[in-house]
Amino acid sequence: MIISKEVKVALLGVVAITALFFGYRFLKGTDFFSSTKKYYVIYPNVDGLMVSGPVLLNGIRVGVVQDMKLLLDDNNKIKVGITVQEGVQVGDSTIASLTSSDLLGGKAITLYMRPNNVRYKGGETLIPHVERSITTMLTEKAMPVLGQVDSTLIRFNSLLNADAKRNIQSIIANTNATTELLRTTMLANQRNVNTITANVSALSTSLRKTEEKFSQLASNLNSIADTLRQAPMTEMIRNTNQTVQEAQAAISKLNKTLSESNGTVGRLMNDDSLYTNMNASTQSLNALLQDLKANPKRYVHFSLIGGGTKVKNADNVKTAEKVRNANNVEQAGNIQEIEVEKK
């Protein structure tokens, strides 16, 4: 049987069209080699989700987005049809979350499995959820900042009026003049600058020598410290501690002696009878001195002639060598007239 060229071309065209159809369906996500089930999810906004986008479960691709349909009678929501492998247990608690698959804004549907009361057989609508993407969060954070920057720029431009521009230009001109003046001054005082540089260099050299001397001084101090560390300081410290302890014991004993009332010092410190007696004696002495000052003849008699005391007239005589007239005499050597006191 001879097949004409026209038939061969026709058969080849049919095969090519069939292959193109199945290839297109395969690229759109239709799997011809495994059994799948189709489910639906309704989103208010798919935000860049494409047909043949992946359906993920724990990071593994278990299906694809098969089609999307705009629901004009339901607030323009989008009904997304997805195909999932038959072995995946999809039920009434399964959540189909619209998530970001990469940083460039690609979208995917991620399934979150929970304990199901009813297991779906295909054709049911899953629970929708939309996760915030990184782009959305950055946009929400950046928009207020951009608004503030825009308002700041507007205020800055309003400040830059003609007068402000002239002032800025004047400031720039003054700055340039100041810079030129500094350059001229530096050139005119180059010799002084060189002298200052030489002085600073000499000062640095002097400081270096001083540092060497300080290093030597530190070494000497370290040597002295090592010598003191090696000296027999323990015995001296022990003797000092013993002396301090003995002094503390002596002070404690003295305090104890002063606080007790049995000893002489304790009685002097604690008993007030000595103070009372001394106070009484002082008062008696003061009275005696006052009486002596008032009546000196009663206590002291002077005789310029003779070796003894002579009394001519007296009412009361205790001791005398010669008594001429007296009313009451206790002791006398020579008595001429005596009038004894009548008792």
Cα-based radius of gyration, to the nearest Å: 65 Å
Q: How many beta-strand segments?
A: 8
Order of helices and strands: HEEEEEEEHHHHHHE
Shape: elongated
Could you give the distance between the termini? 204 Å
**Proportion of residues in β-strands:** 15-25%
Biggest sheet record: 7 strands, mixed
Provide the residue-averaged pLDDT: 78
User: Which spans of ≥5 residues are poorly predicted at pLDDT below 50?
Assistant: 337-343
Give helix % range: 40-55%
Number of helices, counting only DSSP H or I runs of 4 residues or more: 7
Kindly name the structural category. alpha/beta
Strand order of the largest sheet: 1-4-3-2-6-5-7
Structure description:
This protein is an alpha/beta fold and 343 residues long. Among the domains are: 1-30; 35-135, no CATH class; 277-338, no CATH class. It is 50% helix and 23% strand. The chain has seven helices and eight strands; from the N terminus they run αβββββββααααααβ. The protein has helices spanning 5-27, 134-159, 162-188, 190-230, 233-259, 264-270, 273-294; strands at residues 36-43, 54-57, 60-71, 77-85, 95-100, 107-112, 127-130, 310-338. Strands 1-4-3-2-6-5-7 form a seven-stranded mixed beta sheet, with no helix packed on it. A hairpin with a 5-residue loop joins β3 (60-71) and β4. The chain is elongated. Mean pLDDT is 78; it is low at 337-343.
